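User: My advisor, Dr. K., asked me to get a structural model of this assembly before our group meeting. I'm new to this, so sorry if the format is off. These are the inputs:
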Amino acid sequence: MANLYVRAVMPTDLNRNTEWFTYPGVWTTYILILFFSWLVVLSVFGCSPGIAWTVVHLSHFVVTYQFFHWKKGTPFADDQGIYNRLTWWEQIDNGKQLTRNRKFLTVVPVVLYLIASHTTDYQHPMLFFNTLAVFVLVVAKFPHMHKVRIFGINADQ
Amino acid sequence: MAKAFPSTIIALLSMIFICSSAFADSGNSPFIVAHKRVSLSKLNSDLERVSVSIDIYNAGSLTVYDVTLTDDSWAEEVFDSVIGNTSKTWERLDSGSLVSHSFELESKVKTVYYGAPALITYRIPTKLKLQRLLVKYGSHISVALLIILFAQSRRLRSPPPPPANSKMITIPYLTALTTYFSYGLLFAFGQLRDFFRKILDWWSKSNLQGYAPICLGLEDFYIRRLYLRIQDCFNRPISSSPDAWFDVVERISNDNNKTLKRTTRVTRCLNLGSYNYLGFAAADEYCTPRVIESLKKFYSSTCSTRVDGGTTTLHAELEECVANFVGKPAAVVFGMGYVTNSAILPVLMGKGSLIISDSLNHNSIVNGARGSGATIRVFQHNTPSHLEKVLREQIAEGQPRTHRPWKKIIVVVEGIYSMEGELCKLPEIVSICKKYKAYVYLDEAHSIGAVGKTGRGVCELLGVDTADVDIMMGTFTKSFGSCGGYIAGSKELIQYLKYTCPAHLYATSISPPAAQQIISSIKVILGEDGSSRGAQKLAKIRENSNFFRSELQKMGFEVLGDNDSPVMPIMLYNPAKIPAFSRECLRRNVAVVTVAFPATPLLLARARICISAAHTREDLVKALEVISSVGDLVGIKYFPAEPKKQQLEGDRVKLE
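Assistant: The format is fine. Below is the predicted structure of the whole assembly, which you can bring to the meeting.
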């Protein structure tokens, strides 16, 4: 690819854990990683494309749930623990809801779900697992679920 | 981002088309086999009775619909249909199933007849039709899209390097993508190793039952899994004074950089990392004898705080000297620069006040602001229009819950930002603050003594009256070759600070020889020692910085910072290039400082070069050669290089 340049504007986010998400190129990298992992799954397992998309969708669910909605705090100690009770999803954009980044991140699992179910021809049991995954992810990203811990799961002492 | 967006879409679409045409399920195809049996039986009337039976079998893996069998090969004049129809339609034919149809005809005349095959038509569902179209034409479409993409990108091929005052950093798009991917990979590997470590630790017992863990959760993840891998590029010990050339101690590691051991070997390296702007870091002919004298008179420490017994005549002289130099009525001096910011801000601001700070302010300011209990708002780096927007919004809203007016509003900016090498837009910011009646706090850590015609900092350089800046802060570490920090302001302010600031009341005062060094270096800068060395140093550092920066930009590096600023960061971006650049330069006896996340934003890792007045022209040329060759090796020349105008006479190439 020839040299395309983009301009990076410094964001006003002080939280080093989440401000990298506001720079150009993140969305494209995310989509490209999903796409290449589909290719990798296809080549390694030699399965049909539908099963490959289901595998990608479910592993995407596991990875994003673990890092966006389960792990709390930041991976460095500079900020002295002010974000220790917040998951990554609750930290981005300083807790503001319904920003562009949040909308994009909500749409991606839904699109993956549609691709996975379409290419498997809506057959069980893949449909059941896919639906469960997308339901959990989308509900976790609702504005009403900000800082909500259902039944005390993942709450602090 | 707007410019790159359509090209991204085109690139994505073309990749989708390529891969779909390569991987689309072309295994599903219908395959119809038909078998026609014609048997003749002779009738009594010497006429033939033809019985035709046709079997249609779907041997493929796809269901077909609307299968129509038409057998028009039997001419009406010759044959009479007796039983059955010559055509039939079936609604669907599943894969692997068989249908058959038979009919009988009687010949009317006695001839020799040659038949023809029957015609069978069928339909496949639309979804599959589209898929096959995609397979067939997908590669053509993708080639067309790639051509469009290439044509469009030719237009954007090589932008001119951005002007030195631009406030946005220009990143090549592919580099941004690969940097995200590299960090993702490093993060994934770190998580994998943590996972296995957790399993192994679960097996081995620990004797710390009942104790709480030191680090909560992921807190030390970055240190353990990313920083320790390249730890030999940071914290390098030196064993001489940080002059233009210094001795770097070699370290070895036996366990893959988890621990480093110092050896007794040293390497003499060119120093491009110390904040030695005016060259006072090494022995100076005017300063050093006076410092030794004061060491003999006052000894190395006052052993007390300022209010108890730690104020000597040197301290009083120093405060007067600094106030005169900076251009303010009075000043107070502290023993440490970081402490100056983090202990003053809580004294000045409290609950109910507002601190508006630049998004790239130093950690000491962030710490002080957080410790003060005031509300903090951040404005976009060096953007006066955004500062005005934030000010208007905050003044209109008032305090967070009660909406009462703010008690005080202070705007904190820096003279030169040490990670960008950029000068602050002080005139605009001061005018905005005057308009909205906010105080201005200027942190001149890197700019005092290094910029301005007589070295008095950004106010002199940008033509701002020092009476307009309410609080001027600075440190003595950078241009004066000493340690400590100062605050300069009105007499009432300094009096108040001396009563309340904890760094003045409880912290040890600045060491007397260090104070003498500052006094002497200020005298040299102002020319009060009777020579013109101060003016020479200031001219030298300006010349050196401009020369170095322009040469680097000509070579194709992305260098940040304004003209006249002695700090120049070279952008590296990729995390793997940080240790590569650092180690390769050290191998060639040039010591550089590389900065990565979280001191800088994730994408924007850089190598920061600090030019000094002690560097000679030969030193700079050697540094340029080394950086150029390492840059080629590591691949950080993101912009196209300008061609060098070479002089043909002589063997030395004159760099223009």
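One thing worth pointing out at the meeting: Residues 49-70 of chain A form the longest helix (22 residues).

User: Perfect, thanks a lot.
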